[in-house]
Amino acid sequence: MFAVARERAIELVERVLEPSEGIWRVEAYALGWLVRCQSRKWIDTRDDRDLYIGGGPYLVDGEDGSVHMIHVVAARGDEWEAEYRHQVRGLPRPDPLAAEISRVLRTSGRVAAMSQLRSMARFLTLSQAKEYVTALGRGEAPPAELAALAAGPPDTVPFPAFWRISGPDLRQGDAYPP
Length: 178
Known about the structure:
Structural class: alpha+beta
């Protein structure tokens, strides 16, 4: 499944926990192991007065064993995954606009794709939209400058979706606090 075994993921997270914290749940996830922690007292009693509130899960990367904390708000969705794949694994960010225009191109043709693109990215000229759709029609990514122009300004995120705690694989004891 992963290069990093479940037991090793647990060991890596235990190294960065405070003495009052314990591992509550470990789940296999697309990127590795999601390790959820809670106060040891709550794990033993399940008394809500002992709950730690506001901490997101740890992700132990299934490839290299690096440990990352996922922001509690980001962990509610899956948008953080694309950013993780980009920042940590060096993969390109997904382009939802290109995916949508490719779908329209396949199902409805070139003119419909250009029309859809211009309705979604109104500041593209007709010739720019044609170049963008032509690239997609050849099975290529649109030119970087057109993709950036079509995407518009980047969304600003008020908090980091995740941050590295340690890694890869804490074998040298190189823990980094958030």
